Each structure stands twice: as structure tokens, then as C-alpha cells.
Amino acid sequence: MAPPNRTARVAVLGSSVQRSKSGHPSRGRATLVRRLVLVVLVVAALALLTVSFRSPTSGVLHEIQGAGATALRPFQIAAERVAQPFRDVYGYFHGLTTAKSENEKLRREVKQLRNETLQYQAAAAQVPELKKQLAYQEGPTFPKDYRPVNARVISFPSGPFTQQITIAAGSHSGIRLNTPVVTYNGLVGRVTNVGPATSVVTLITDADSAVPAKDLTTGVTGLVRRGSGDSLILDRVTKDQVVQDGDRLVTQGTRDPRYPDLYPYGIPIGRVSSVGRSDTAIFVQVQVAPYARFGSFDAVTALVSTKPAPKLP
Questions:
Q1: 272 near 249, Cβ under 8 Å?
Q2: Which residues of the chain have pLDDT under 70?
């Protein structure tokens, strides 16, 4: 006969074993139920989709959907009212960012249009001058055996002691050293430095410039040089020669083939502005007002000779 306490322990162990054995079927049934519910929900969803596609505008399902939508409408309105301030704030900052971007874009476009307008205005301002230049080239006074090379002036004298300009044409256009440069008004100077696409022109107002000139009225000849200041003078005119105010001066051209002149005959230089005489001076002081408006023209014409270059002995 077993002791009483041993009997009690056996009874307790038996009951615990029975409970543990009875727990496994409950978990299995729960898993089976969940799977069945999932299958039912999937089948129901497929059925609802099928019914919805087969009855796009009417049917029981659509009535149910309408009723559901009606029931959820208040919640939808409340959600929209709650979300509206956030949407407004987002829309404000998004609109502000977009407006700044568009404003910067418009500023760039305005700047570009302003630059283009200035370029068009500058080009339009050159039209009358270019027309006069073309008229001079087609006129009877244009020198023979020369062809014109029109070029823009890209730099002017940087100071009172620099009497040179730079033009946008060079050796690629046929320009060479000592090529005469003119405008429709008159003589400008000659090329003293040549590059492939640009050339430096020394003006007749330079201190080292000397242009053989002729008075069309009296036939008196002399050298047009730089005078005091920026003025020009007709040098080497003796007292017995007659020169009067208003006489027109042109380039003299070549008088001796052995000593060809740099400038062809007949290019206008200027007019006599005053004639001064002195008892002690040998030569007459003849002041000349040039026809060319130095510093104000935008384009010039280089006179490129069409004659073959002379052969060196």
C-alpha cells in the first residue's frame, strides 16, 4: 500500500498530463479556423470583384456600395476639413517656391531681351552710316584698282597720346600693312599691324603720320600732319602759294612710279579752316579740319589693292 502523499503526487501528475494533451487539439482547431476564414474572405473578395465588373452601373453590389459611401460621407467630410489646412499650407509654400523660380526665370528672360534690344538698337543706329558707306563705294570717287573690305571698329584710342584703332578684319580678308582705311566722310589712316582677323590702324592724327595732300581749288600740295592739340595742318606751303579758307584737300596719290604713295589719289582729307601768315616764317600756317569724325564712327572700309604686288629686283 502506497503512502498517501505519493498517491496525491500521482494524481496531480496525471491531471497535468491530461491537460497538456488536451491543449494541442485546441491550437490546431484555431489555426484551421483562421485558414478557413482567410479562404472565405479571399473567395468573397473575388466574388465581389466579379460582380462589380459584371454590373458596372447597377446591381445590388452598387446599392451596397452607395449605402456604404453615404454612411462614410460625414467621416470623409470631417477628414477633408481636418486635412484642408495642411493642404493649404503645403500649397502656399509650394506656390511660393514656384513663384520664386518663375520670377527668376522671368528676370533672366527680361535681361536677355534687354540685351537683344540694345543690340538691335545699336545695329539700327549703324544703318544710316552703312548706307552712306555703300553709297561712297558705289560712287564715282571710289578709287580704282581697289576693293572695299568693310570692318567694325572694335577699339578706339585709349588716351590722347594713342592715335590708333582696331578693326575686325585682317590678313584673312586680304588686308596688308599700309592698307588705307577710310569712311564715307574721308581718310582715317593706314594699317600698321595685321593679324589674321584684326588689324591696328594708325590715324592721320598721329604724330608720326604724314599724308601727301592736294588743294583741289588752287592745286597747292603739301603734307597733312598733326598740329597743336588734335588739329591738322597742311605743312610745307610757302608764302607765294595761294590757299584759302574752305578749300578742299584730298590725297595726292603717286606722282613718281619709283616712289609709290601709300594712299590712292582723290580720297577726301578735310577742308582748310584758317590760313595764317607771319613775316618771319617761311611757310604759311594752314589749319585743316578733317572730314572723318574720329572716335564716332562704328565701321570703316579698308582699301585693298587689286593690283599684283610689285616684284622685288
A1: yes
A2: 1-26, 48-49, 51-69, 71-73, 75-76, 122-123, 126, 160, 309-313
Alpha carbons 191 and 170: distance in angstroms, whole number = 10
Measured in degrees and rounded to the nearest 5, phi and psi for residue 229 equal: 70, -135
Show me where the domains of the chain are located. Answer: 146-305
C-alpha cell at 261: 604713295
- Determine the 3-state secondary structure of 4 from DSSP: helix
CA-to-CA distance for 155 and 136, rounded, in angstroms?
A: 24
C-beta of residue 203 within 8 angstroms of C-beta of residue 294: yes
Burial 71-108 (b: 16+ CB within 10 A, else e): eeeeeeeeeeeeeeeeeeeeeeeeeeeeeeeeeeeeee
Rounded CA separation 120/47 (Å)? 74
Q: Could you give the CA distance from residue 188 to residue 23 in angstroms, rounded to a whole number?
A: 118
SS3 label, residue 280: coil
Q: Which three cell numbers stand for residue 118?
A: 540694345
So what CATH class is 146-305? mainly beta
Bridge-based pairing of strands 199-203 and 268-276 is: unpaired
Provide the residue type at 6 as one letter.
R
Closest to 293 (Cα-Cα) out of 144, 129, 72, 80: 129
Q: Can you tell me the distance from the alpha carbon of 172 to that of 149, in angstroms, rounded to the nearest whole number?
A: 11
| pTM, rounded to two decimals | 0.62
pLDDT at 51: 60
d(CA 292, CA 115): 30
